[in-house]
UniProtKB/TrEMBL annotation:
The keyword Oxidoreductase applies. PROSITE patterns: ABM. Residues 7-99 form the ABM domain. This is Antibiotic biosynthesis monooxygenase family protein. InterPro entries: ABM_dom (IPR007138), Dimeric_a/b-barrel (IPR011008). SUPFAM superfamilies: Dimeric alpha+beta barrel. GO terms for molecular function: monooxygenase activity. Keywords: Monooxygenase, Oxidoreductase. It comes from Amycolatopsis halotolerans.
């Protein structure tokens, strides 16, 4: 599927102070519940250089999906609820933005 048709979800997650390493470990442990979904095209975890006033870490999770309806189906599934429950103890806040990828430039490597 061309990248220009992907539906992208970007989560900003604020992780409680001192819990970043544990969050990263659990995220990797439960990541299969997302990337093995047939509609998922891939997922990335990034830690920002940003830190909140109370010392919390900020992470961004980006995932691409074949379509918005396919993502919304996953978002309301038991599979996603279980995934979220395992990550919830580490979070102190967050937000979600959705978008459509309109172009992708490949280096050709």
């Amino acid at each position: 599927m061309p990248a220009s048709t992907a539906f992208r979800v970007m989560l900003r997650m604020v992780i409680k102070p001192g819990m970043g390493a544990d969050f990263e470990r659990v995220w990797l442990d439960v990541g299969d519940s997302v990337v093995t979904h047939p509609a998922n095209l891939g997922q990335w975890l990034s830690r920002s250089d940003e830190e909140t006033e109370d010392g919390a870490s900020v992470y961004y999770i980006v995932s691409d999906w074949v379509s918005e309806p396919a993502f919304r189906e996953f978002e309301t599934s038991d599979r996603h609820l279980t995934h979220r429950q395992k990550l919830h103890p580490y979070r102190s806040g967050g937000s979600m933005v959705t978008m459509r990828v309109i172009a992708y430039l490949d280096r050709g490597l």
